[in-house]
């Protein structure tokens, strides 16, 4: 079965550079979530999109922006990178929460992008 | 105070042991509870999903939710070395975002 695809798998950037992470959800999933996981920490929610509109926002720095496109893939844009941005960035996809109240609606994570800022 | 608290361990058990992993949460309005397994440098993998209170069983895994005490548990029977991973409990908010516990690192020794 197709899974959530993230690219690139690894990325090394210098401070103050920009980075773009891409996420391709499971087919027919219309909701995308982005999480950041620092070393030894639990994933922290950044932002989510449903039908190309931002549906929720977490602890995402103003230097970061994201969008969802008409084919439901999403991109996380990170500018003015700082050393502290080094982390694993996960994307997850699901069917919209509003469609299924009690089911797990297929909430699935990708393998992540490991970003290292030097 | 974090909305979801989880003992980070580490937890080390012999192969075949029963493992008990636990989390507490603060908001009684939460209704959706998940357990994820995460291997090193991999994405979280959904193990169990529970709506409201009660038990749910899937093979060697059993998830329990006690809403009266705001306590969620994951039991692993006949643990195997391949179960060695970090286990994350999570609460799903109405918007769909997940709030994770800190994760418990489990090692099952042959």
Question: How would you characterize this protein structure?
Answer:
The complex is a heterodimer of chains A (118) and B (110). In chain A, 0% of the residues lie in helices and 48% in strands. With 118 residues, chain A is mainly β. In chain A, a hairpin with a 6-residue loop joins β4 and β5 (44-50). Chain B is mostly beta strands. Chain B is built from no helices and 11 strands. In chain B, a hairpin with a 5-residue loop joins β9 and β10. Chain B is globular. Classes of the chains: A mainly beta (118), B mainly beta (110). Chain A binds chain B through residues 4, 31, 33, 35, 41-45, 48, 50, 55-56, 58, 88, 90, 92, 94, 96-97, 102, 104, 107-112, 114, and chain B through 34, 36, 41-46, 49, 51, 88, 92-103.
How many strands appear in the DSSP assignment of chain A? 11
The SSE string of chain A, one letter per element, is EEEEEEEEEEE
N-to-C CA distance of chain A: 36 Å
**Overall average pLDDT of chain A:** 92
Q: How does the overall form of chain B come out from the CA principal axes?
A: globular
* Structural class based on helices, strands and sheet pairing of chain A: mainly beta
Largest β-sheet summary of chain B: 6 strands, mixed
What key phrases describe this protein's structure?
heterodimer, A: 118 residues, mainly beta, seven-stranded mixed sheet, four-stranded antiparallel sheet, 0% helix, B: 110 residues, globular
């Amino acid at each position: 079965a197709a899974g959530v695809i993230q690219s690139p798998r690894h990325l090394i950037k210098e401070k103050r550079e920009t980075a773009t992470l891409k996420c391709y959800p499971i087919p027919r999933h219309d909701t995308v979530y982005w999480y950041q996981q620092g070393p030894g920490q639990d994933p922290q929610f950044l932002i989510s999109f449903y039908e190309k509109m931002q549906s929720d926002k977490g602890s995402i720095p103003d230097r970061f922006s994201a969008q969802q496109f008409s084919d439901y893939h999403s991109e996380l844009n990170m500018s003015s990178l700082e050393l502290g941005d080094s982390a694993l960035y996960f994307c997850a996809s699901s069917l919209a929460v509003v469609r299924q109240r009690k089911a797990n609606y297929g909430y699935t994570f990708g393998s992540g992008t490991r970003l290292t800022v030097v | 105070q974090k909305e979801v608290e989880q003992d980070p361990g580490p937890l080390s058990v012999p192969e075949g042991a029963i493992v008990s992993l636990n989390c507490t949460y603060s908001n009684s309005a939460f209704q959706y509870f998940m357990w994820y397994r995460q291997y090193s440098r991999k994405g979280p993998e959904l193990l169990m999903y529970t709506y409201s209170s009660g038990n749910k069983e899937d093979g060697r895994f059993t998830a329990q939710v006690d809403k009266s005490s705001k306590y969620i548990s994951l039991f692993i029977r006949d643990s195997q070395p391949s179960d060695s991973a970090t286990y994350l409990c999570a609460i799903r908010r109405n918007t769909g975002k997940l709030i994770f516990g800190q994760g418990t690192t489990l090692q099952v020794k042959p």
